[in-house]
Amino acid sequence: MDIDEIRSRIPGLKHCSYLNMSYGPKPTPVTDEVVRMARYIEEYATLSKEVMEEIERVYEGARVDVARLLGASTDEIALTRHVSEGINIVATGIDWEPGDEVVVTDEEHPAGSLPWMNLAQRRGIVVKQLPLAPYETEGIVERLDDLITPRTKLLCLSHVSTRTGFVLPSREVADTAHKQGVPVLLDGAHAVGLIPVDVKALGCDFYSGCGHKWLLAPQGTGFLYVDADKLDDLEITWIGASSAPTWDPDSYEFEALTTAAKFEFGTRDKAVFSSLSTAIAMAEEVGIDNIARRSWELADHLRRRLTDVPGFTLRTPMDPVRSTGISAFDIGVNGRDLTERLWEDHRILVSGREDELRVSIPYFALEEEVDKLVDVLAELAVRA
Ligand SMILES: Cc1ncc(COP(=O)(O)O)c(C=O)c1O
Fold it and tell me: Cα 74 to chain center, whole Å?
């Protein structure tokens, strides 16, 4: 892997140490593709045959690329705007009765928590919480088994925890849920583009992901996998012309698509999905295994060095199978203030909250950048 060459494709890296993958930095070929599509639409006029055909070509091409990336079939992929849209499609597509239950973990992002809180308020469902720490597969599976009841209608959990970078034992958890007839929705926000994802091997029923984090694609490029066996069960909540091409204005009968594309509705920025394909091609060219390995090695280096600095307690497990390029530390001071100082004084981008610091290291970061972060944090710790 030629890191210098890869970095030369991502101009933003010249100006800072990019260690916060909430939104990934954008490579020039990705931006070029956004511009190419915009110029094509401008040049040939929005509704011309050329433009309409090119937009459909790139949009359906992106569906093929996402399906390949996730190990799914194209019929199982809905293109969305973001992870939240995919989670909401699943959340509202289930027929909830008051008292029905959903199980979530205690490390979900608001995107994986709020839809259930909303349904609790609106429909009277019950949200049950599965604690992940101390991050042992056996314990997680046992606790999950105890939480599931005949009223449980869904398990929703991250593939990779946004808070700690912990890789959840998705297969074991899915098998446990399925044994009791409970479908599983995985939130792949921090997995896709960072580690290999194979939805069939994971055994999930639904998988919601996005392009704008580790894949380095623009915001607004998301996707939802719906297992072929679940396509009929999941109800359509939002519907528009593209979800149901056959409808009769007199009888009010309609026939929706039978593929996951039935969950797409209304006019959307289809052209931007062309650059998602460019981003996927770049990740595949480097190799997702290589990306995962290098990102993990840099994070492992950080974890080993930073645990020696007083005041930093690692929350992320060290197990290579269950950890990624994301690390979280308890720091005993306000993480937001620290994040601000790192940016203002050193142009280092990390993320922080309450008394936590999260460092997410992309594969194209430099070991010197990780060392600099540790040195700065050690210096601040001495002065505190
Ligand atoms: C685990 C997880 N899920 C969902 C989201 C939100 O994603 P989106 O903005 O694509 O809906 C994030 C964002 O950081 C996240 O970390």
Answer: 19
- Quote the CA–CA distance of 91 and 263 in Å, as a whole number: 13
Tell me the pLDDT tens digit for each residue of 321-344. 999 999 999 998 889 999 999 999
The DSSP call for residue 167 is B
Q: Which residues line ligand 1 (CB under 6 A)?
A: 22, 82-84, 109, 111-112, 158, 162, 187, 189-190, 210, 222
pTM: 0.97
| Cα of 23 from ligand 1 centre, angstroms | 10
Structure tokens at 30: 């990705």
In 3D, which of 102, 121, 99, 122 has the Cα closest to residue 112?
102
**Length reported for the chain:** 384
The first and second tokens of residue 279, run together, are 């981003």
The whole-number pLDDT of residue 1 equals: 87
> Which amino acid, residue 242?
S
State how far the Cα of 321 lies from the Cα of 62, in Å rounded to an integer: 30
Burial of 154 (0-12, 13-18, 19+ CB in 10 A): buried
Task: Determine which residue's CA is closest to atom 4 belonging to ligand 1.
Answer: 111
Neighbours of 24 (CB within 10 A): 25
Cα angle, residue 287 at apex, residues 198 and 7 outer, rounded to 5° = 135
